[in-house]
Structures are given as C-alpha cells and as structure tokens.
Design a protein that fits this description.
Mean pLDDT: 93
Catalytic activity: NADH + H2O = reduced beta-nicotinamide D-ribonucleotide + AMP + 2 H(+); NADPH + H2O = reduced beta-nicotinamide D-ribonucleotide + adenosine 2',5'-bisphosphate + 2 H(+); NAD(+) + H2O = beta-nicotinamide D-ribonucleotide + AMP + 2 H(+)
Cofactor: Mg(2+)
Order of helices and strands: HHEEEEHEEHEHHEEEEEEHEEEHH
Oligomer: single chain
Largest sheet: 7 strands, mixed
Bound molecules: NADPH dihydro-nicotinamide-adenine-dinucleotide phosphate, magnesium ion
Keywords: Hydrolase, Magnesium, Metal-binding, NAD
Radius of gyration: 24 Å
GO molecular function: hydrolase activity; metal ion binding
Number of domains: 2
Number of helices: 9
Protein name: NAD(+) diphosphatase
Structural class: alpha+beta
Length: about 350
C-alpha cells in the first residue's frame, strides 16, 4: 500500500515540477522580450495580436457568446494594406504576455484608422471596455484590462514631465525614456483599498452617486502617499462611514483598469457591534447601510435588469463576479454560513 502512495506522490511531484518549469520558462522568456529589443521585434513577426480602437477592444460575437480574437501578424498586415498603411504600425504594439508554448501576445491600437472598415473586414466590433470585461470569458477579462491599461499609459506618457521633450518607448512597450533628461518612465498603477466592513452579523455596503441604480458595493478608496494598506483601510472607513475598524485581514487583490490602472487590495474589516452607527460622508456616498445575511444572499441572485420594481424603486444588487467586491461579499457569506452551521 505504502509503495502505491509513494508512486502516486512521485507522479504528482513530478507533474508539479513540470508545471513549475513551464511557468518559470515562460516568465524568463517574457522578461527577455522586455529587455531585448531585437528579440522582441523578431517576436512581433510570429506573435498574436489583440486589437483595440481608441482603447476599446475588438470582440467577435458567435451566437450569444463574445470572443476576443487573436490575430496573426499576417492578418494585421492584410488589414493595414487595405488602408495602404505600412507594417511599421506593428511596432506600435505592446507586449502583454505569451502562451505556454512561448507564442508572444501583443496589443495594438488602430485608433487612427477607420473603425467601420476594420469591423466589417474582421466581422466583429470594437466594444467599450466596461462592457467587454463583463461579456467575455472570465480568463480573457484580466488580459483585456491589462492590455488596455498599458496602451492608455503609453497614450498619456508621450512627453517627459521634466523637459517636455518626447519620450521614446522600447520595442515591448515596458518603459519609455527621455533621452534629454535620461529619465526612464515605467507603467504605473495606483493602489486602492477595498474593504468589506462587518459588525459580526451584518456587512456594510454603500452606493456612490455614479453607480448604476440599485447597485451597492464595498467601501473603496485610493491609498494616500506614505500610507500602508492597514492605515488606508482605517482612514477610508472613518472618512466614508464614520466607523472605527477594530481588526482587518487581507483577502486578495486585482488589477482594475478604471479610471486608469488601479491595484485593488481587498480586505475584510471588523467594527464593534456596539459602535456600528453609520455617519455617512455625503460628499462621497449617496447611501451606506448594513445588510443581513438573507438580504445579501437574495441580492447575489438578482440581475441588474430584474432589480427594478413597479413603483420605480430598485432592489439591491451587487457587483458582478469579475469585480473583486463580488468576491469579498461571497467570502463574507461563506464565513457567516459556516458560523451558523
Ligand atoms: N473592482 C471592484 O470591485 C471595485 C473597484 N473600484 C475602483 O476603485 C477606485 C477607487 O474607489 P473610490 O471609492 O472612487 O476612491 P476614493 O474614495 O478615494 O474617491 C475617489 C476620489 O479620490 C480622488 N483621488 C485620490 N487619488 C486619486 C488617484 N490616484 N486617482 C484618481 N482619483 C484619486 C479623486 O478626487 P478628485 O477627482 O476630487 O480629485 C477621486 O474622485 C475606483 O476607480 C473604482 O473603479 C471600486 C469599487 C469596486
Ligand atoms: Mg470611496
């Protein structure tokens, strides 16, 4: 019996080892592409491309499903020839990853070309990112989000802050340099905390005026300069709902492309049940209130479309599963349910 277990253990270990080495090799290859301009230029000829138009990703619809097509360099060339544009356009693409087989993936924004011509040629449409993230397959949304963020960063960092001179990008698009000042610019993300506050039996959700009607989410806020995650959670909860956090723990994180490249750091926080009276900051929030387990479970089942009632009011619904707020709410439900069991 022991021999069978040992053999199985060896097989699992060797599988994990092989998985690791695939991952490590892939990361090393990507790093080489970022650092080596000529290798990356060569990779552009064999890579696949995700297309954007003024930062909106290109999607194809088959039946009710949306797909994010990956085009070959040859297909891109064919499109560019339609516009009598040169292949040099391909150099404007940015490296966003590679497959396990080391086929590099690039994102390319063809915003200067006529959108409808590309759409009819490739039989699809450029779709607003906010919509695209929620209709494509879950594995594609992080890729679209990071690709769009990188393209957006290049758009807004064409000039050096110090000299006002144009900055030059490397081939992969992982940085920009001002040759006059010698300053190197790297893509940036803003850290944002998002926290689900609980008093032990209820959780606190709020609405910003810009949210779609009926949607409630966890509290969020940009980290201040010099602040750590714990301090940001304490401050945001105090600022937005006037409560003092007693304890908190980290859950997970997510890159979020709105308004432009945030690193969402998700936490759970506890406040004392005896000191749980909300004092809402009306400048930032439209509503903030406590929700019981039953109301949360019902809200999770609700579709935005089905939340409108006959009298024009809206029943609460929560962010979709692609948003980290959704994950925090589900974790809270699990935790409450296990406490009740
Ligand atoms: N993925 C998810 O599940 C969720 C993601 N989010 C994201 O979190 C982000 C932050 O949440 P929010 O509650 O609005 O943040 P805050 O509570 O910090 O309020 C936003 C305001 O902070 C100011 N601000 C401070 N630093 C920055 C910065 N680096 N970039 C932009 N604005 C800054 C701006 O004010 P002013 O314009 O007056 O200068 C802005 O309007 C949002 O962009 C939202 O998309 C939020 C909830 C859920
Ligand atoms: Mg906020």
């Amino acid at each position: 019996m022991a021999a069978i277990y040992q053999a199985a253990y060896r097989r699992v270990s060797s599988l994990i080892c092989r998985l690791h080495s695939t991952y490590v090799r892939k990361m090393r290859y990507l790093n080489e592409l970022k650092e080596d301009d000529s290798l990356c230029r060569q990779a552009q000829t064999s890579g696949t491309f995700y297309l954007f138009h003024n930062l909106s990703p290109f999607l194809q619809k088959v039946g009710e499903k949306y797909f994010v097509p990956q085009l070959s360099a040859a297909e891109i060339k064919r499109i560019l020839e339609k516009f009598k544009e040169t292949e040099q356009w391909i150099e404007m693409s940015v490296l966003i990853g590679c497959s396990d087989e080391h086929v590099p993936r690039f994102a390319l924004d063809l915003g200067a070309l006529e959108k409808s011509v590309i759409e009819s040629e490739l039989k699809g449409s450029f779709t607003n990112l906010q919509k695209a993230l929620f209709v494509v397959d879950g594995k594609d949304s992080p890729l679209l989000a990071s690709a769009q963020s990188l393209l957006q960063w290049h758009n807004s960092h064409q000039y050096c802050n110090k000299t006002g001179q144009p900055t030059q990008r490397n081939v992969s698009g992982s940085k920009r340099v001002c040759h006059a000042s010698g300053i190197t610019y790297y893509p940036q993300m803003s850290p944002v905390i998002i926290t689900l506050v609980s008093d032990g039996s209820r959780c606190l959700l709020a609405r910003q005026p810009s949210f779609p009607q009926g949607m409630y989410s966890a509290l969020s806020g940009f980290c201040d300069m010099g602040e750590n995650v714990e301090e940001a959670v304490h401050r945001e909860v105090a600022e937005e709902v006037g409560l003092e956090v007693e304890s908190l723990w980290y859950s997970s994180s997510q890159h979020w492309p709105f308004p432009s490249s945030c690193l969402m750091i998700a936490c759970h926080a506890i406040v004392r049940a005896q000191q749980a009276e909300i004092s809402m900051n009306k400048l930032e929030l439209e509503e903030a209130r406590w929700f019981g387990l039953e109301e949360i479970v019902e809200g999770l089942k609700r579709e935005p479309r089905s939340s409108k009632q006959d009298d024009g009011s809206f029943l609460p619904w929560f962010p979709p599963k692609q948003a980290i707020a959704h994950q925090l709410i589900c974790e809270w439900v699990k935790q409450q349910t296990s406490q009740l069991a």
